[in-house]
């Protein structure tokens, strides 16, 4: 498994960098450096990013709870009406309708989270 | 059901898994390959692999079985399995990847700088892993019994043996490959028969079940509103704490890729979960006798022969058996790798090694741990517990939601979390949920409020875990890790900022 035990085969050396895609910046000055070395200024910048990401996360969770987790309560409060016209309505909502909503919520979140990070990097670059 | 076709289907899936595993053996040369596929897997592949690993016996057989028994309320299982990924995406995906942690104990130690927290997390990973492996083995025994008439232990032993062989041989690289293919096998296996089943149902005059309490919501449990919300809580918040899910995030190149991967997973799961409901509803019309005979989990496998019949029905049934075995094998191997990794790193060996960068626990220790990781749940599956497959999986989610969910959420977003608080919360939440699970497993589902509270513990154990973690942390402010600022930067700074990669410097 780990190579050298196999007779006749030279040990294979794998040369990889897990961060091939990350852009390495050449300048070691400015706020980037502040963040890296934990100065007061760097902490202020980081705290603002964490706050905006947390706000976004809480907002998305709240939307999920309002949209999906409120359904049992709706079913509970209006149980008899399902027996009339729409007795299969809960099946359609839970069996099909929920999934596109979850996907749309996730897509929206990823867009906003990446925008937050982009704005943060631009802010740091300008400073 | 035709035993010959079924044996053929099972053999093909098992042999393909072993063959890809052997191929992976040739590829994985470094220990990093062995554990984490060298962290170079594209989001599309990784998402397929996550889907392949995540869709277990509970998804493939269990949901349809539960729907057949209890009706519309059971649709919360697939909804919860999927919504859990949305919460994982929103609350932990990118920071978790940036933490550089490979296992949950790794995360606990990196964030809290406490070997004790690491050890408690390790015990919980093994507990949840075994609890999740158990229904896979039960499902495998049931499937093979229905397909060929073999005794129940044969299917479980077969899955155990194939999982052990492929894990021992290939490690993570081959697993990624296997898992990705297995998602598509499972989707094909569950989707193709639906076309024929629905066609047969339409030519039969499209009969619908006329059981009013089965069709209307909130009739499945004794205390329906409490039980439904408790289930929702366990499934929504439990996903992020499953040990085999976290490992997959480590194979993403960076935090942004981790988010994109999760988004694709949401789509893949949503597509898959459209189908089990169809089997459940058709089962109510054509196979409700399975409920009385206690074999509701078999409804997916039984329907093609009852509805389509003939050689066509047998072929479709064989396809479903193949898909079910793909589900057992993929989930079990992912869990076995995670449990074995933690066993060999944290519980068997006394020294603590960093997984990447430092010395890696010997492959021999990992192999010994794999045997242990598979044998324990296999033994438990022979005890003949009378519980639905999806119910046992639900219990594993409840333990994960009451322990790792608060650890991850507070660890990532709240800098005042201390090791003392985290350990207290893990022990309180995980312990209480664990006790409830053991009582339910041993004594069966009880009656009245105590039965409901024990069978669906998440509604009280998750808040308890959060409260204990917060209160104890606030009372031990001097124990906040000294490098917390550094850790927060590592967790939240975008990679494009060009800081030093986390996980290397310490």
Description:
Chain A has 127 residues and is mainly α. Chain A has one domain. Chain A is built from 4 helices and no strands. The two termini of chain A are 50 Å apart. With 506 residues, chain B is mainly alpha-helical. Chain B has a single domain, classed as Sodium/glucose cotransporter. Chain B contains 23 helices and no strands. Chain B starts with a helix and ends in a 14-residue tail after the last helix. Mean pLDDT of chain B is 85; it is low at 350-359 and 502-506. At the A-B interface, helix 1, helix 2, helix 3 and helix 4 of A face helix 2, helix 5, helix 11, helix 13 and helix 14 of B.
Structural descriptors:
heterodimer; A: 127 residues; mainly alpha; 4 helices; 0% strand; disordered N terminus; B: 506 residues; Sodium/glucose cotransporter; globular
Provide a quick synopsis of the model.
The complex is a heterodimer of chains A (127) and B (506). Chain A has 127 residues and is mainly α.
Q: Structural class per helix/strand content of chain A?
A: mainly alpha
Shape descriptor of chain B reads globular
Corresponding CATH superfamily of chain B: Sodium/glucose cotransporter
When the domains of chain A are counted, the total is: 1
Low-confidence stretches of chain B: 350-359, 502-506
Q: Class of chain B in CATH?
A: Mainly Alpha
The proportion of strand residues of chain B reads under 5%
What order do the helices and strands of chain A follow?
HHHH
Number of helices of chain A: 4
User: What is the terminal separation of chain B in angstroms?
Assistant: 58 Å
Helix content of chain A: 55-70%
Structural class, judged by helices and strands of chain B? mainly alpha
Instruction: State the CATH architecture of chain B.
Output: Up-down Bundle
Taken together, the total number of domains of chain B comes to 1
The proportion of residues forming helix of chain B, as a percent range, comes to: over 70%
* Biggest sheet record of chain A: none
Strand fraction of chain A: under 5%
Globally, the shape of chain A reads elongated
Q: What gyration radius of chain B follows from the Cα positions, in whole Å?
A: 22 Å
Biggest interface between chains: A-B, 64 and 69 residues
């Amino acid at each position: 498994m780990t190579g050298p035990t196999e007779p006749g085969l030279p040990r294979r050396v794998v040369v990889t960098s897990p961060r091939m895609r990350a852009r390495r910046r050449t300048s070691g000055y400015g706020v980037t450096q502040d963040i890296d070395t934990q100065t007061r200024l760097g902490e202020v910048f980081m705290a603002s990013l964490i706050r905006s990401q947390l706000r976004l996360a809480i907002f998305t969770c709240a939307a999920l709870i309002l949209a999906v987790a409120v359904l049992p309560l709706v079913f509970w409060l209006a149980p008899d009406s399902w027996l009339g016209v729409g007795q299969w309505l809960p099946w359609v909502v839970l069996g099909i309708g929920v999934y596109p909503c979850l996907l749309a919520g996730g897509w929206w979140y990823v867009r906003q989270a990446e925008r937050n990070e982009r704005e943060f990097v631009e802010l740091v670059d300008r400073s | 059901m035709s035993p010959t076709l079924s044996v053929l289907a099972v053999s093909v899936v098992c042999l393909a898994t072993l063959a890809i595993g052997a191929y992976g053996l040739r590829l994985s040369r470094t220990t990093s390959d062995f554990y984490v596929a060298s962290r170079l897997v594209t989001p599309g592949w990784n998402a397929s692999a996550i889907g392949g690993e995540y869709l277990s016996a509970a998804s493939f057989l269990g949901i349809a079985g539960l729907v057949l028994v209890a009706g519309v309320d059971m649709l919360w299982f697939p909804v919860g399995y999927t919504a859990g990924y949305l919460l994982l995406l929103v609350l932990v995906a990118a920071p978790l990847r940036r933490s550089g942690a490979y296992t949950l104990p790794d995360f606990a130690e990196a964030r809290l700088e406490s070997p004790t927290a690491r050890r408690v997390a390790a015990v919980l990973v093994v507990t949840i892993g075994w609890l999740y492996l158990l229904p896979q083995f039960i499902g495998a025994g049931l499937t093979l019994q229905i397909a060929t008439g073999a005794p129940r232990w044969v299917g479980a032993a077969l899955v155990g043996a194939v999982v052990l062989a492929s894990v021992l041989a290939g490690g993570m690289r081959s697993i990624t490959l296997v898992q990705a293919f297995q998602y598509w096998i499972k989707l094909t296996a569950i989707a193709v028969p639906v076309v024929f089943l629905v066609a047969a149902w339409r030519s039969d005059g499209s009969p619908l079940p006329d059981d009013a309490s089965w069709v209307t919501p909130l009739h499945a449990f004794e205390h329906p509103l409490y039980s439904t919300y408790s289930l929702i809580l366990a499934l929504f918040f439990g996903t992020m704490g499953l040990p085999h899910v976290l490992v997959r995030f480590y194979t993403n190149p960076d935090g942004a890729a981790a988010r994109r991967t999760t988004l694709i997973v949401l789509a893949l799961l949503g597509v898959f979960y459209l189908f089990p409901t169809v089997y459940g509803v058709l089962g109510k019309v054509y196979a409700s006798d399975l409920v009385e005979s206690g074999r509701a989990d078999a409804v997916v496998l039984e329907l093609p022969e009852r509805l389509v019949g003939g050689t066509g029905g047998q072929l479709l049934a064989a396809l479903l058996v193949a898909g079910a075995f793909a589900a057992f094998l993929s989930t079990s191997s992912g869990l076995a790798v995670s449990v074995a990794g933690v066993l060999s790193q944290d519980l068997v060996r006394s020294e603590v090694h960093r997984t990447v960068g430092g010395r890696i626990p010997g492959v021999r220790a990992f192999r010994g741990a794999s045997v242990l990781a598979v044998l324990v749940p296999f033994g438990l599956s022979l005890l003949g517990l009378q519980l639905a497959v999806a119910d046992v999986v639900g219990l594993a989610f409840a333990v994960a939601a009451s322990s790792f969910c608060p650890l991850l959420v507070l660890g990532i977003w709240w800098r005042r979390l201390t090791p003392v608080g985290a350990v207290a919360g893990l022990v309180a939440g995980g312990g209480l949920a664990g006790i409830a699970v053991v009582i339910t497993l041993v004594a069966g589902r009880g009656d009245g409020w105590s039965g409901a509270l024990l069978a669906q513990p998440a509604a009280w154990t998750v808040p308890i875990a959060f409260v204990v973690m917060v209160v104890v942390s606030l009372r031990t402010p001097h124990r906040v890790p000294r490098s917390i600022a550094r850790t927060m930067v590592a967790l939240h700074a975008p990679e494009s900022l060009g800081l030093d990669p986390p996980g290397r410097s310490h």
